[in-house]
Design goal:
The structure is a homodimer of 344-residue chains.
Chain A (H helix, E strand, L loop, with lengths): L3 H8 L3 H8 L8 H14 L5 H8 L4 E7 L6 H4 L2 H16 L3 E7 L2 H11 L3 E5 L3 H10 L4 E4 L12 E4 L1 H14 L5 E5 L6 H16 L9 E3 L4 H10 L9 E4 L2 H13 L9 E3 L5 H5 L6 E3 L2 H16 L8 E4 L2 E3 L13
Parallel strand pairs in A: 1-2, 1-3, 3-4, 4-5, 5-11, 6-7, 6-8, 8-9
Antiparallel strand pairs in A: 10-12
Chain A binds a DNA duplex (16 and 16 nucleotides) through helix 2 and helix 4.
DNA sequence: CTGTTAGCGCATTCAA
DNA sequence: TTGAATGCGCTAACAG
């Protein structure tokens, strides 16, 4: 329980001198006393009382990392490598910057506000935040905030966000599918609630169609159910002879892999009977057979950029641009068939 | 920035009264003032200053969740669903108990001690801790500690730990392989550093051999390299005609799936040319083809039990037994071939 | 270069 | 049933 006062007594100096040594104000301390104090600090394994620090500075060294999620999320979705990759990258960089990570999942903006106030958070990283919530948070919170993969419903504020070229991702994968002769496809969104990224990707799909003087109707957007059974039933229905669909465009490798796996279990061959594409280019896309043709994104980099933006904001350095959109590209593997005579 | 003092002024009472309302000491507050104070608290969106709280009580509401890992871990390993499943489960339960999660990864015990002191942690959950480190931590730290998947090098202390029947898992899967006619197998450990769980599993393998009057030599234990390329080369070397090995017993689905995938890429059929088993029964084992025969464990439950143990320790309730070992069982799928004429 | 001091917001003890 | 006073350990402004 060593405190600054005790260190001071042991070293025979005043608390202020100890504080100066700790804070690196070496101009105000003689070499000799500095070394003496440092030795005592090391001996006693001094660790500052963060509570007292927060109280005195009304600001902590804690970064709140908050994952927004649907209230009743199944655990299985947490197994998505995306969240752990991004979290792992952020934790490391936050730690390297001398800050601490407070991890929290919620779908309630008030909880974020409370957390920020109670702990005097130095900054916040918010992942997957619905547009309307972003606004509330931005209007209320005083500390720096960086969003990840969020879409905003207003243009009144400058939001700092690290996202993806979602629209372009949808566009590129669709252009590829069109080049392979596919005309009837279904877009399969990850969730029915926070649709920012999914919407943008679908818009990209539609743009690719338009560019070819074709139309991808809004009806081709399908939000996947939260129940695995329901999803599997849906996958299978896409291969009915009555269904003209030749390609399923997933908004995540996770569900794409699930679909491929389901098809295999029912003797439906991918891609000869139906083509499938993913989104993310994570482990899953390389593990399933056929391996997924997918859109690449670098999850860890998202985390790293978000942390570096936040650190610049905390240190009041300039940040530009506020809205980073990471590049995407198509990774062609084996899950799409070349159609000789065009469908439709 | 509303403080208790301000709330008190708004409500026309003393700070002490406000504190009594907040802490539920309703016996010391009249119904009327209680309601008035509660209304003001809600209006002002009062959130207590946790720094002041820590200082006053010299204890915080923070649970430190610390994942031990090898210093230069590759990000790809973080994509292992195990860590996110367990983390997700713990975060939720900790939050439900009114505590906060401070997430940290390290391989240095001093960092744990510093963290605990600095933040006056209410409790610690330590994942994958090497035996010698456990001892140091236990000897130094005053707050409750629950370990997950840790093995201890001494029996002097009572360690609270949530683990797995690792030995039994190794035993069961090996017994199964023996029953399928396999006699030449290799055990593939996840890491070369923290070997507690891997060692126990391998011991289980050896016991199964002994039970059949056979011997599995120590040379059959192989720690996988951290480099993917090196691992892949190794997988392939197991199928050399010079290599009598008929089955690879992995200590995780992750690497087993990687191996299966590698074999497929090189035209080696699993299980007809070589059998593979996993450990964990996570998503990967169901996604690869052939699907993995593996040992089931429930990662989320580990997290939940650890949190509930920790909460009982914090609240000074009895905890029994200190060392929980979750049950395991073999899940038979398609990655093991029945050998008609025994090898060896 | 070194020491003294006030105050951050809360819990808690004691007094009314 | 309510209020006043103290101290937790640190920072930062100021005095020596």
């Amino acid at each position: 329980m060593s405190t600054i006062k005790e260190i001071a007594k042991s070293a025979g100096v005043s608390p202020t001198t100890v504080a100066n040594v700790i804070h690196g104000n070496f101009g105000r301390v003689s070499q000799a006393t500095r070394e003496r104090v440092e030795r005592v600090i090391a001996e006693e394994k001094y660790a500052p009382n963060m509570g007292a620090k927060i109280l005195a500075q009304s600001s902590s060294r804690i970064i709140g990392v908050i994952m927004f999620m649907e209230p009743r999320w199944e655990e299985s979705v947490l197994e998505d490598p995306f969240s752990s990759a991004i979290l792992g990258a952020m934790e490391r960089d936050i730690r390297d910057n001398g800050y601490f990570v407070m991890l929290h999942t919620t779908s309630d903006e008030d909880e974020v506000l409370r957390l920020s106030k109670a702990w005097k958070l130095a900054g916040l990283i918010l992942v997957w935040v619905p547009g309307d919530v972003c606004r509330v948070i931005y209007d209320t919170i005083e500390t720096p905030v960086v969003f990840i993969d969020s879409y905003f419903s207003d243009r009144d504020h400058v939001y700092y966000n690290v996202g993806l070229q979602d629209e372009r991702g949808g566009y590129l994968i669709t252009r590829y599918l069109l080049s392979m002769g596919h005309r009837n496809m279904l877009f399969l969104a990850n969730t029915s609630l926070f649709t920012g990224g999914d919407d943008a990707r679908f818009k990209g799909c539609q743009r690719a169609f338009l560019e070819n003087n074709l139309v991808l109707s809004d009806a081709c957007y399908h939000a996947l159910d939260r129940e695995k059974k329901v999803r599997e039933k849906f996958y299978l229905s896409c291969t009915d002879s009555s269904n003209p669909c030749t390609a399923l465009v997933f908004s995540s490798d996770y569900y794409a892999a699930e679909a491929v796996s389901t098809f295999q279990d029912h003797g439906i061959d991918v891609p000869s009977q139906i083509s499938v594409t993913g989104f993310d280019d994570n482990l899953f896309s390389r593990l399933v057979r056929p391996r997924l043709t997918t859109v690449h994104q670098n999850a860890s980099e998202k985390g790293r950029i978000a942390v570096s933006m936040l650190m610049r904001l905390i240190n009041k350095k300039s940040v530009s641009p506020p809205d980073v959109r990471l590049d995407v590209h198509v990774v062609v593997r084996d899950s799409v068939k070349k159609l000789e005579h065009n469908g439709s």
